[in-house]
């Protein structure tokens, strides 16, 4: 497959003013490093745009890229950003694109708490400043039997968790999405018990394939795709890959997630992609790749069995789905 190219502004077209501005942004990004812990109340207008500027700066250079979809064609950006599940905006596939602008992403902070040595609330620019970004091309398989191939930009979740020092009791990691019913029309309806909540076992969270994504196609994450920061767990059904994360909590006991609470028979905790374990209402043997006609065979662990099957040795995946 031919490598695609991101659109880049040639150096010759960058005006001196833009160069000046970008150097200023760099300086601001550098200063932000020193102030790791920010009380939510202090995130005022002075910091507005700070994480976006920092991220755009980081995206303007070529990032290391890993192709982990066996050379399958990338799903066009248009399809990735116009066919979405993001129930905070409604249950229609086009709702996230239509109402996505209502998601307020700036400022954004991330709370990390529970069984960690270093808990706190951190401005997103400080979270980003400490991470090496890379591109990862992954398959994405929704439990509804459709799929995409997406070039994410992000960093391993493990890199963030290690910085906060999980304790020996940290067996599970809980993730929570933004709760803002004033701006998110879907949250005024009882689709699930808001906010959206997901969780992983600690060894799933620490697995090198598990990503925190902040962009796709070499650009800042579009709102409908889970801006500014979302989880990507490529061997699990898409509902595990929670969007627009505001809180991460490490705990001992396995928590109840949003989809399990709503329908435990249909949505299990592991939710590993498994063509041999059908959803009660439909087969999981095949899938529709968005932008293609016909159907593809669904792969065990979504094609990542070599990397993750050992995590589930001895677990009956028909019973524990
Ligand atoms: N907060 C939140 N995260 C979410 C969802 C959601 O409705 N809200 N939908 C999930 C589902 S079912 C899928 S398939 C993926 C869809 O990601 P995409 O729209 O970027 O393809 O996001 C997951 N993360
Ligand atoms: Mo999904």
TrEMBL record:
<comment type="function">
    <text>Part of the MsrPQ system that repairs oxidized periplasmic proteins containing methionine sulfoxide residues (Met-O), using respiratory chain electrons. Thus protects these proteins from oxidative-stress damage caused by reactive species of oxygen and chlorine generated by the host defense mechanisms. MsrPQ is essential for the maintenance of envelope integrity under bleach stress, rescuing a wide series of structurally unrelated periplasmic proteins from methionine oxidation.</text>
</comment>
<feature type="binding site">
    <location>
        <position position="84"/>
    </location>
    <ligand>
        <name>Mo-molybdopterin</name>
    </ligand>
</feature>
<feature type="binding site">
    <location>
        <begin position="87"/>
        <end position="88"/>
    </location>
    <ligand>
        <name>Mo-molybdopterin</name>
    </ligand>
</feature>
<dbReference type="InterPro" id="IPR000572">
    <property type="entry name" value="OxRdtase_Mopterin-bd_dom"/>
</dbReference>
<dbReference type="GO" id="GO:0030091">
    <property type="term" value="P:protein repair"/>
</dbReference>
<keyword id="KW-0560">Oxidoreductase</keyword>
<keyword id="KW-0732">Signal</keyword>
<dbReference type="GO" id="GO:0016672">
    <property type="term" value="F:oxidoreductase activity, acting on a sulfur group of donors, quinone or similar compound as acceptor"/>
</dbReference>
<feature type="binding site">
    <location>
        <begin position="241"/>
        <end position="243"/>
    </location>
    <ligand>
        <name>Mo-molybdopterin</name>
    </ligand>
</feature>
<feature type="binding site">
    <location>
        <position position="230"/>
    </location>
    <ligand>
        <name>Mo-molybdopterin</name>
    </ligand>
</feature>
<comment type="similarity">
    <text>Belongs to the MsrP family.</text>
</comment>
<feature type="binding site">
    <location>
        <position position="177"/>
    </location>
    <ligand>
        <name>Mo-molybdopterin</name>
    </ligand>
</feature>
<feature type="domain" description="Oxidoreductase molybdopterin-binding">
    <location>
        <begin position="105"/>
        <end position="255"/>
    </location>
</feature>
<keyword id="KW-0500">Molybdenum</keyword>
<comment type="subunit">
    <text>Heterodimer of a catalytic subunit (MsrP) and a heme-binding subunit (MsrQ).</text>
</comment>
<dbReference type="GO" id="GO:0043546">
    <property type="term" value="F:molybdopterin cofactor binding"/>
</dbReference>
<dbReference type="Pfam" id="PF00174">
    <property type="entry name" value="Oxidored_molyb"/>
</dbReference>
<dbReference type="InterPro" id="IPR022867">
    <property type="entry name" value="MsrP"/>
</dbReference>
<keyword id="KW-0479">Metal-binding</keyword>
<protein>
    <recommendedName>
        <fullName>Protein-methionine-sulfoxide reductase catalytic subunit MsrP</fullName>
        <ecNumber>1.8.5.-</ecNumber>
    </recommendedName>
</protein>
<dbReference type="InterPro" id="IPR036374">
    <property type="entry name" value="OxRdtase_Mopterin-bd_sf"/>
</dbReference>
<dbReference type="GO" id="GO:0046872">
    <property type="term" value="F:metal ion binding"/>
</dbReference>
<dbReference type="InterPro" id="IPR006311">
    <property type="entry name" value="TAT_signal"/>
</dbReference>
<feature type="binding site">
    <location>
        <position position="142"/>
    </location>
    <ligand>
        <name>Mo-molybdopterin</name>
    </ligand>
</feature>
